[in-house]
Automatic annotation (TrEMBL), chain A:
The lineage of its organism: Bacteria, Bacillati, Bacillota, Bacilli, Lactobacillales. Keywords: Amino-acid transport, ATP-binding, Cell membrane, Membrane, Nucleotide-binding, Transport. This is Amino acid ABC transporter ATP-binding protein. GO terms for cellular component: plasma membrane. SUPFAM superfamilies: P-loop containing nucleoside triphosphate hydrolases. It is found in: Cell membrane. InterPro entries: AAA+_ATPase, ABC_ATPase_HisP-typ, ABC_transporter-like_ATP-bd, ABC_transporter-like_CS, MetN_ABC_transporter-like, P-loop_NTPase.
UniProtKB/TrEMBL annotation, chain B:
One of its GO terms (biological process) is amino acid transport. CDD domains: TM_PBP2. It is found in: Cell membrane. Gene3D superfamilies: MetI-like. One of its GO terms (cellular component) is ATP-binding cassette (ABC) transporter complex. It comes from the Bacteria. It comes from Secundilactobacillus mixtipabuli. Keywords: Amino-acid transport, Cell membrane, Membrane, Transmembrane, Transmembrane helix, Transport. GO terms for molecular function: transmembrane transporter activity. Residues 19-208 form the ABC transmembrane type-1 domain. This is Amino acid ABC transporter substrate-binding and permease protein. Belongs to the binding-protein-dependent transport system permease family. HisMQ subfamily.
Amino acid sequence: MIELRNVVKKYGNNTVLKKINMKVHDGEVDVIIGPSGSGKSTLLRQMNLLEQPTSGEVLVDGDVVSGKVKSEVTRKTHEKIGMVFQKFNLFPHYTVLENIIHAPQVVRHESKAQATEEALSLLSQIGLTEKKDSYPASLSGGQQQRIAIIRSLAMHPNVLLFDEPTSALDPEMVEEVLKVMKNLAKSGMTMVVVTHEMGFAKQVGDRVLFVDDGQILEEDTPEKIFEHAQHERTRDFISKILYT
Amino acid sequence: MFQSYSFVGKYWDLFLKGMGITIELAVISIVLGLILGIILSLMKRSKIKVISLIAKMYIGFIRDTPLLVQIYIVYIGLPMVLGIDVPDFVTGVVALTLYSAAYIAEIIRSGIDSLPMGQSEAAISLGMSKRRVMTDIILPQAFKNILPALGNQFIGNVKDSSLVSVLGISDLMFSAQTVRGSTALGLQPMLVASLLYLVMTWLLNSVLAYIERRMKASDRVA
Ligand SMILES: Nc1ncnc2c1ncn2[C@@H]1O[C@H](COP(=O)(O)OP(=O)(O)OP(=O)(O)O)[C@@H](O)[C@H]1O
Ligand SMILES: [Mg+2]
């Protein structure tokens, strides 16, 4: 569904991604791990075209969507690929309900009633119906992140990208967010998740990709990566996240 | 001592009329300046280099030259460009608008820049068009953040409008000059004028503080 071909990303002289080749398959959950600064976020941001690769190309459903394409192609790609951020990024001037229904209304041209009905059903699935008229600032981090997830879902994306969705949360709120993500994975959603939550990777991950210094050093099933990684670098890194 | 202020009673009307004109100048120029300021700040962000360069040069020119010079440029230049006589009041409004728009554009830019990148990234990731991201997500938040600075600009316009009295517009400053002329008093009419300017800025400050408090409150309430 998403394919990266020889994707290189440079910031000035700093080459952050070095010829990445990767495919995200429908219905699959890919977990990306790797040291800080290795290029994990940059990798995700190429996939949904928040940034354009310096060279190489991004394909979605077989079509090239990166580089010199019409701005409507870029926008459509954004619509198909949802993204959940470390810092939630709910819109503070909108209520919870408005946060969820705004894009379905203005982008998908759903009626307010239709968008609201779906938003309420999503809210009830995560148990936050009574927060629909609250503003984000009055909610906990865990609540905000769960709402950010269903805000993306309300756009019916084909893929959801997550960039360290639990690392800005207090420890006691991590589980409630992971639970929503696990349910989503089980429902068949295609997901690419940057996270160091081993439990999540083991339970629902199909593949784990270890990114090191701008390259995908190794990729395999969670069991293989966590217990029998090929590379020393990978084993080092995994022992660090397991014992810190 | 206080006897020298007896002129106030006689010229009270003139002072009040002057105040009225000052308020008109400030209100009209802040509203028009806001519209032009938004346009300038969007021009400055434009991907088209020429457009952003024009905005940058304009803002630079206004900020780096004295208002009094700008007033004369408008006074002499506007009738030439339009080919018609321009009423002095219109000249004053145009000069103040052109002047405050440059500052407002910079205020808006700082308001937009102060928003976390994540706001526009989240909106873009939902598939919203660039224009939508700007009108629905960025500008409303930026506007809220810059309200205090815009208020200060408004107060600035009230004070700066005194300079257009050189054109013979009968604003508060002009009234004070007129009273000086007719009473042969030196300082007192100016002191009365400054007191009236103070009253206006104080009132504006109070209104602004009230609005800010209201907006803060509405952030919290569910
Ligand atoms: N917009 C940018 N401009 C310049 N350099 C950047 C930019 N974004 C990222 N970088 C650099 O690219 C490198 C990779 O950053 P990236 O955020 O992708 O790493 P990461 O693996 O997500 O790290 P972390 O675990 O800390 O989130 C870093 O050295 C970073 O400084
Ligand atoms: Mg990162």
